[in-house]
Amino acid sequence: MGGPIFSGNLGWLIALLFLGGRTQSVTIAIAGGQSMYRTIRAAALGAAVGIASLGCATQKETHTPRTGIEQLLISSAVDHSLDRFDLTPLAHKSVYVEAKYLDCVDKNYIVGSLRSRLLNLGCKLVDKLDASDAIVEIYSGGVGTDSQELFVGVPEIPLPPPSPIAIPRVSLLKRTKQNGTAKLMVMAYDTHTRAALIHGGISLARSECKNWNILGAGPVQTGSVPNEILAATGEADLDLGTMVRSAKRALTATAVPAPLFSPSFTSGSETLALPTSVPATATLAASEAPPSIPPIPSASATATEIPATPTSTISARSLPKIPPPDPVSTGAYIVPVGVKINE
């Protein structure tokens, strides 16, 4: 009983020294070895439990083999291509859709879109060839996606060997463009006579999604697919383009409305113009017409024709009461010059 307790407990002592946190010193007493052993074991166990309770959890993220933008590019191009065919000769007929000649990606969506358009025309879709009035066949000449990249700046410059380092690319302007292409052909003919009902030829349509980066800032998304997403959901990524559009909408919403009346001034009189929405043919009723006012002599009148009447000071009560402009009238009230109103 005369030595330190190290036998079989060296691991606990090391755990206590390194994981004990704020323990300042560990003293192993020579006397009372069993009690000290239990104390050390309890402290090490508490430290191990505390360390085990710490940590962080990560959420696993998975993605589909094909991105949503890629599928939207194809489906949007297919919709634009099918919209160019005139299917009205098949209205209210029993139609059998033949899709065995269609060989491309997203075949089911193309057939479904065609069937949906036929139903909108009142057609009856049948599963048997003998029960139909017309047969519709659809072909694909090319359905897929591709991408292009354009940048303005300095390309990557590798240093001469044996150095494995390369000077990175510096892009002032970068544009990444994704295209969706759909080239389809639709034709229809009578089931019994085999006479052609529709031969719309070939329809080629494309959709696009462009990402712009300017001096490393971005991306700013433009193109037909982002516009369709914004119109359908009202959602857009918080990028430079979204902020510019939001600022424009805010400025338009806070614009000051135009005044109801826009007075215009002419020589010798003040004219109040009525709103432009009032029809020009509106006239005053006989009871609402203002009292007659002597006309103002023209500047071309001779001295003998103009009576010498000095400017008089009269009271406002003695003036005839002129009603304010009627909103249904397009006339103007003219106050003669040379009359001083004394309030």
Shape: elongated
Query: What percentage of residues falls in helices of 4 or more residues?
Result: 10-25%
Low-confidence stretches: 1-32, 260-287, 299-306, 327-343
What's the number of helices?
Answer: 6
**Mean pLDDT, rounded to whole units?**
73
Terminal Cα span: 122 Å
Nearest-angstrom radius of gyration?
44 Å
Strand order of the largest sheet: 2-1-3-6-7-8
Order of helices and strands: HHHEHEEEEEEEHHEEEE
Number of strands: 12
Largest beta sheet, briefly?
Answer: 6 strands, mixed
Instruction: Give the structural class.
Output: alpha/beta
Strand content: 25-35%
Describe the structure.
This protein is of the alpha/beta class. 25% of the residues lie in helices and 26% in strands. The protein has six helices and twelve strands. The chain has helices spanning 10-19, 33-53, 68-83, 107-120, 224-233, 240-253; strands spanning 94-98, 124-125, 134-154, 157-158, 166-167, 170-190, 196-214, 217-222, 264-266, 269-271, 313-315, 340-342. The strands form four sheets. The chain has a six-stranded mixed β-sheet with strand order 2-1-3-6-7-8. A two-stranded antiparallel ribbon has the order 4-5. The chain has a two-stranded antiparallel ribbon with strand order 9-10. A hairpin with a 5-residue loop joins β6 (170-190) and β7. α1 crosses α2 (33-53) and α3 runs parallel beside α4. The termini are far apart. Mean pLDDT is 73; it is low at 1-32, 260-287, 299-306 and 327-343.
